[in-house]
Amino acid sequence: MNDRDPEFATKAVAVIELLLNPPTEGPLFCVDEKPGIGVRQPTSPDQPAAAGRAARREFEYKRNGTVDLLAGFRVNDGQVCGMVRLKHRSREFCELLALLDEQTPLGQPIHLILDPVSSHWSAEVNAWLAARPLRTFLFHCLPVHASWLSFIEVWFSILSRKCLRRADFADASIATQEIEAFMLTYNTHMAHPFEWRKGVRFYQRLKDKIAARSELQLAA
Fold first, then answer.
1. Is the pLDDT of residue 16 over 60?
2. Which of 61, 149, 178, 195 is least enclosed by beta carbons within 10 angstroms?
């Protein structure tokens, strides 16, 4: 992975420490979008297995556009909150914030780990937050090119393997229903907190890098 952020170590350590020790006064969500989920269906139906021959599936598809999933993984208990839309602009991100707001008891701050993309930090998002003074949203920014630090990417991988890999969707509404049904099933039967397993050495190496930089600054 290329280190494109001069403050990578500092930001990464802050995020990892949040994942290792989630806040207790309110939920911590890892938030991101999974864009471009293909809405497609085979041009011919599958052929069932016959004597001496395995089942066959048509490899050519008819493409019916794409949908985008916006979701938050609640680090505290592993529950997922998300929605499917045709786009993932600031407007849709504000809808996701409203969904997280609805599912969080009043008085609790909501911590978010998220990418530093424009749709998360736009004037529209700032205006939406300012209009809700009774709820505190605390944004924790990932380093540039480091979405792999976020637990939501792990959950997107689970979604791809268990729901999307062999799925056929005739249109966007069916894709939406299937993805929402999987989220419900996951939350009911499979949800659990994830553990940070990148390794103690990686974490310590980042902390050593920060300490070395501080020593150079003091020496200067």
1. yes
2. 195
